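Dear all,

This email documents one entry for the complex benchmark we are building for the journal club exercise. For each entry we list the sequence lines for every component of the assembly. Then comes the predicted three-dimensional structure of the complex as a C-alpha cell string, followed by one or two observations. Please use this as the template for your own entries, and keep the labels exactly as they appear.
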Amino acid sequence: MKTAQRILITALDIFNQQGENNVSSVEIAMELDISPGNLYYHFKGKEVIVAALFDLYQEQLRAILDAPSKQSDTSLNIEDFFYYLYLIIEKNHLFRFLYRNPTDLTDKYPSVAKGFIKLMAAQERCVTELLAKFVTQSTITASAAQCNQMVEIIGLVFSQAGNYYALKGNDINDDEYLYKSLSAILFALLPYINIEPGELHHLQEAIVNRGFSHDE
Amino acid sequence: MKTAQRILITALDIFNQQGENNVSSVEIAMELDISPGNLYYHFKGKEVIVAALFDLYQEQLRAILDAPSKQSDTSLNIEDFFYYLYLIIEKNHLFRFLYRNPTDLTDKYPSVAKGFIKLMAAQERCVTELLAKFVTQSTITASAAQCNQMVEIIGLVFSQAGNYYALKGNDINDDEYLYKSLSAILFALLPYINIEPGELHHLQEAIVNRGFSHDE
C-alpha cells in the first residue's frame, strides 16, 4: 500500500478512537512509524489530512446515494430500502469522527462545513425521493408532511445515534450500533408501511442478522 | 447578583456559543470585566466551573423529572406529557454546551461522564414510566418493545437534535428548535396514541405556539 493511503487509513482509525481534536499529525506519524517529515511530504499538516478524509467520505457516500437512481425503475421493495439505509449508516460509522464533534469540526474547517451542508442536503433529497416513490406505488401511505418527518428522523439517526449511545455510557460494538440504528428507523416508519406480516418478519430478521438478500 | 452566580451565567452563555473546549477561564473573566485572580477566588479553574454548571443542570433537570411522580395519580393526558417533554427539551437546550461535544467533554471530565450516565438513565426511566401509565389507561396502545423504541427516539431527540440541525447548516432560533424537536417526537408517537381529532389539533396548536395550557 502506498504511504499516502496508509497515512489516511491510520489517521481515520485514530481520529475515530480519540477524536480529531485530540490527535496531532506527529502522533499519526508515530503510529505509522514514519518520521513527521515523511508525513509532511505527503500531507502538509493535519488540516490537509482531515480535508482528504472528508473528500474520501464524500465520494464514497455519494456513490451509495446515487445508486438507486441508476437502477431500472421497477417497483422498489422495503427490504432494498433498508439495505440502502444500512449502507449509509455503515459508511457514516466508518467515518464517525466527522460526527463526533460536529460543531467544533465545522468551525475549524470551513470547507468541511460547506461540504457537509451539501452532503446532508443530498442525503435528504435521496431519502425523500425514495419515500415519494414508495408513496406512488402505495408501499407507503403518508402525506408529504409525514414523509418530511421520516426524513428528519432518519437524518437524526444517521448523524447522531453514535453520540447518543456514547453519552448513555453504552459501550456497544459496531454490529449493535447498526442494529439499533436500523431498528429505530424501522420503528418510526413502520406505521406507514404497507407490509405483509411475513415480509415484516423477514425484514426484521434481516436487520437482526445484518443479512440482507443483497449480501449474497 | 453575587459574583459566583454571575460567573456561572456568563460561562454558560459563552460555552453555549463557542463550545467549552474553545473558551478559557481568562476569557470568562474578561467577558465579566473581573480579574482572572478574582475569578480564581470563586472557582479554582475551568474544570470547577464546568462541574458546577453540570451540578446546576442536573439539579434543575431532576426537579423536572421528579414532578410527574409527585402529582396525584389521576389520569394523565397527552398534552401534559408533551408539556413535560417540552420542559426537558428547554432545559437541555439551556445547557446545550454539554451536548455539543459529548465524547470529548466526558473524556475530559470523568465526573461529568458518570453524572451523565446516571442522568440519562433517570430520564429514560421517567419517560418509560409515563408511557407505561398511558398504556395502562389505554391512552397509548403499544407493546413494551414499542415503548422502548419510543424512549430511544425521545432520548435521541433530547440529546442530539441541536447537533443535527447545526450540521445541516440550519441557523434556527430557540423557538424553532423546540418546535422541531417536539414535532419529531409527536410524529414518532402519534400512531400509538388514541386521541380524538380535536384533541390532536389542540396539541399540534400548542406545539406550534409553544402555548401549553399550563403556561397560564
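Observations: The first helix of chain B runs from residue 3 to 18. Chain B has eleven helices and no strands.
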